[in-house]
Amino acid sequence: MQTNPDGQTLDRHLTFQEIVLPLRQRLRTSLLPLAALCVLIMIPLWYDNNPGLLGYILIALGAWLSLAVWSAHGMGLPMLPMLVLQTLFTFALPIITRNETLDHYPAELLLPAGLDVLLFCLTMTGTWALLIRQLQPGAPYCYALQGFQKDGVKKLRGIGLTLISVFTVYRVAQMMHLTDPLFAALPSGSQAIVSALTSAISVCGFFLVAMLIGGNSMGSGQRVAFWLMFALNFLMLSAGFVLSAGMLLMGAVFIGLLWGSGRVPWRYFAFLAIILSFLNFGKFVMREKYWDPQTGSGMQEVGFADMPAVYSEWAEASYLLLTGSSDSPASQTGFGPKEEKEGQSLLSRVNNMQNLLFVMETIKYDNAPLLYGETYTLIPPLLIPRFFWPDKPRAHEGQILLNVHFGRQDLQATFGTYIAWGLLPEACGNFGPIYGAILLGICLGALAAWIEVQTSNKLLFSLEGLLGLVIFMGVLNSYEMVASVLVTSVFQSLFPVILGCSPFVERQSTVRPDAY
Hints:
Keywords: Membrane, Transmembrane, Transmembrane helix. By secondary structure, the chain is an all-alpha fold.
């Protein structure tokens, strides 16, 4: 973000293309070090006779080639490199760390799985590269946020802090059951609509303020207030012992700090990694105690006033599991899955390779029939708001279908918990390992190219910019989702942003004037 030395003049003409240019340059200079790092990682894998070595090489090769292509031709919202890095982490990291879940599958499948990921990356990048040259950019105008001609930073601060405050007040009221009478009087499905609205509001607000913090455009008191509200919202969102509930919030702040400063916010990233890793160890113990043993989801309610005691207990459980103490609550129960007794590290959680191996094994050795797109046909009905269709299918119906069809769960078990899949394993379950990877790569490559071209000449501080951010954050948070969950969650977030921002935008040219 461009400001003058006193941090008070906002560059209201900043476009996505201008933001992406320095990112491309930095990525281009990092390609050789990245290649060297990938080669260095191969050495311990070879030394330890890791059966996934060849699979890792294919995955790393596909990711590196994709990043190299984008660094030469990227022009807008960086959807492609984000998808590539997401794929690299979720499929290569389990091999690098020798995740024990991979030992449950035949080692001979690791190479075909790596080839599948390579095909996905190359197909996605090839489709993107073809379309990025063919698609025409959007018209040179956008619906810019009003009021930035004068005192731009001040007004942006006000909008961002207001959005954050509204979301925080709503979450506190919800946890204190102050909203229960309101939703009881409203039609069924109203709470889901309000939740989607407030979630979209929070993403926009935290992104805007984080970007100002990255650009040194916030006072010390405002910074303190921002980080306190961020911490409070993270704790409230994670109070159900589902850490992924706060991923969208954390991602919005990360992207805001990155775009505002032009540098990766390593301190923020490292701090979150430590906190998430620590809490991840004890979450299964807490779920065992607080979640309904029959359904696994209807947890005993954790109210706002209960949070200090609950998080103190959670921290104690994580500490005891981390140190291997015999006083660990999990060790005293004598039952439950292995993760409940030993804890689960964050690295163990980031693992889509096991899902890909599972579906490949089931198709190859158990002759499970393919679904031929059945999970994708669920998307249109799921887009209908529950307000209009109270009995519509569950939001995770795609995951349910995959888990039941391939024998991972029976239908009754799906009412207790949802086993994650990811977009690539889902595609393989529908069309087979090779064809699924190719078809998914074509679809995501086309989507990434279209979004990048359409946002290239749009202002960052515009309705189009905020919508692009919502889509970007939704896809960033999709590594465990199936397509129906991804599409419906993004769809539900877009409309609140449109409705909320429409009164505050005006049609404006995106062409930068010679002087301003």
